[in-house]
Amino acid sequence: MIAPYDPDRVRRRGGHALVIGASVAGLLAARVLLDAFERVTILDRDVLDTAARPRRGVPQGQHLHVLLTAGQLAMEQLAPGFTAELVAAGAVRVDLGRDVELYAERSRLAPGNSELPMYYASRPLIEDVLRRRVRAHARLTLGSGQQVTDPVLSDDGAVVGVVAVDGGGARRFPAELVVDATGRGSRTPTWLEQLGQPRPEVERVEVDLVYRTVQLRRPAGDRRAMLVMPSADLGRGAGVAPVENERWLVTLFGLHGDHPPGDPEGLRAFAAELATPEVARLLDDHPPVTPDVSRYRFPASRRHRYDRSTSSPRGLLAIGDSIASFNPIYGQGMAVAALQALTLHRTLAAADHREPADDFYARSATIVDDAWNLAAGGDFRFPATTGPKPRGTDLLNRYVVRLHRRAQVDGELADTFMRVAAMLRRPTALLRPATVWRVIRPRRPSARARSVTDP
Ligand SMILES: Cc1cc2nc3c(=O)[nH]c(=O)nc-3n(C[C@H](O)[C@H](O)[C@H](O)COP(=O)(O)OP(=O)(O)OC[C@H]3O[C@@H](n4cnc5c(N)ncnc54)[C@H](O)[C@@H]3O)c2cc1C
Q1: How many CB atoms lie within 10 A of CB 80?
Q2: Is residue 140 situated within a structural domain?
Q3: Closest atom, ligand 1, to C-alpha of 337
Q4: What's the mean pLDDT in 120-133?
Q5: In this predicted model, what pLDDT tens digit does every residue of 191-243 receive, in sequence order?
Q6: I want to staple 347 with a disulfide (CB 3.0 to 4.6 A). Which of 134, 302, 341, 360 is the partner?
């Protein structure tokens, strides 16, 4: 799934590209644009300092962020040295298959039988390391404290720059290409209207999800990590991530009104009802770093179907959460942004694109489809989920439930599932004949008692 990155394949077109938003999608898009443009500017409304701490423009930064392996590998290609710097700053390396206690359908999946490295760090640290590496490029300018308010339009309806305001007033930034990486609050649909074009079709899958996160003190050397996925009959779950500065981030979440409360006792009681007592035990045994309990409400996964629009306005392209934002319990957003950045690279390398948007949306639709079908599609396991249901979802969900149950005793199945979840393999890998057979074959009565890798 991870396209190779080869900057020599991109022909320079000269000029200036501008990216709005210096978060994960914006930084990676800017890196790729440097191969095609003389200068690249990123503007962000937040004042970006060098400290890795949560900021206003990325409120989700307080909560657990899993960096899926495909995302980390894509980031490493685009920002060589990223992983080593992340580890040097305190990121914790684990093996997804063997070290992370992953619960699905109320029981732990069997340990996988091949190596699957993954790095846990706080979201602000991941972004800070990326920002430092991308910022090191001499032809890149990062303007922080700059709120982009409007597009600059040419007489013939192309986007030829943006207007941004800071403490000193409004300023125009001319650009041949503007990339919108402003996340869920993206104004590209509104700008399209200003240009007299239809807004893109939007798909929304309502999950009414609430996250609550606490930070616990972590004894040095204790690298326990957990992921407790909800099931159709228990719409709550949790994640436990060992991160830098000897902390655990513990996120508890609930869907469709089963929301975790904000007080520590209530949170502990919520955790006690999970499919495993381990998360509640961790809360009992380890003191909090601060008394704060952060909250994030995520009403719905949302996808703008730019890939279905007949033609995009000249000079404007959206990327990352601006295109699609997924139920975060599946941990896909940063990986999708990184894979999209590699797709933008391939788009720029493929032809002398003066207008890469349509080709980019067509090429990246598969990445978004795969993530969307797993996340938004998977959410239709919960009867209260509403929205447009991808075709074949109910059948696939029943199959995945069965796969999870089998993967509780079959390390090879667990391994296949984890590689798909980590976006290293496409979801079609779950439907290969050998995998389907492992899922549907009749279970021998003694199977549970046998080795986890030899059912
Ligand atoms: C609660 C929660 C948990 C999540 N957990 C995970 C996880 O475990 N793993 C994972 O991979 N993903 C996770 N995600 C998703 C992940 O945070 C995003 O997918 C990722 O940050 C990429 O988003 P982005 O760069 O497109 O936009 P964002 O991260 O939302 O950044 C948008 C940027 O644009 C800037 N901006 C906005 N408007 C303007 C403007 N007008 N002018 C200038 N600048 C502007 C903002 O300041 C910000 O820097 C989670 C999301 C949520 C909500």
Answers
A1: 11
A2: yes
A3: 22
A4: 97
A5: 998 888 899 999 999 999 999 999 999 999 999 999 999 999 999 999 999 99
A6: 360
Domain of 341: which CATH number?
3.50.50.60
**Does 159 lie in the same domain as 89?**
yes
Segments forming the whole domain that contains residue 280: 102-117+205-299
Domain count, the chain: 2
Domain presence at residue 443: no
Tokens of 132: 């430092």
Tell me if 124 CB under 6 Å of ligand 1. Answer: no
Pocket flag, ligand 1, residue 376 (CB < 6 Å): no
What's the confidence (pLDDT) of residue 353? 65
Confidence of residue 113 (pLDDT cuts 50, 70, 90): confident
Residue 40 lies in a domain: yes
Could you report the per-residue pLDDT of 419-430, keeping only the tens digit for each?
A: 999 999 999 999
pLDDT, mean of residues 29-39:
96
E-only strand ranges, 29-108: 39-44, 92-95, 100-104, 107-108
409 phi and psi, to 5 degrees? Answer: -125, 5
- The 3-state DSSP class for residue 130 equals helix
> What confidence tens digit (pLDDT) does each residue in 152-183 have?
999 988 999 999 999 889 999 999 999 999 99
Smallest Cα–Cα separation from 218: which of 199, 241, 236? 241
Write the CATH number for 235.
3.30.9
Ligand 1 pocket: which of 118, 123, 186 to mutate (most atoms within 8 A of CB): 123
Domain boundary among 280, 299, 318: 299
d(CA 28, CA 196): 30
